[in-house]
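Re: the 172-residue chain
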Amino acid sequence: MAVGAIYLLTVLVSVFATDADSISRTDQGPIQCPEPYFRVLSQCFRLYDDKRRSWEESKALCYGNGLVLAHPKHPIDVRAAIVERGQKYAWLNARGDGTVMVWEDTDDYISNTNALWFHGQPGSRVTADYCLRLLSIEENMNSTPVQPLLAYTCSSTKTAAGRGLYALCELK
């Protein structure tokens, strides 16, 4: 009986020691993203800007490459990283459900009053026909800061001004 208790205690100690070791290793330095990904804080992203894509095409491209359509924890920082690569508009992993935008990977929703919405958004653009796009411009012509989130027609491959919409994938 004592041998069984010692064995169980040894197993528990090794399990907890392994978990603690992996946490400390993770916390020892910044996350490294392999090429061609770019890092934004604790996430790795890849922008596929070789051709314009709809939201569904973008989602399929990410999935086909073992990735997911991006769900950035810090959209403003991700936007800044994309602006450094040229001002590209990118699809994110959220879609309207009739009342709000919902992150497809977590089922969390984006409040319609979230401060990150572009001016006047989302309004009525929360049906399943609308998906979330990241604006990769930081200010408008009047030097007014522009918020990064915009609801846009999922089937679109370009903006009303003719700019392309691209897949922003995340390495999970």
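The longest helix spans residues 2-27.
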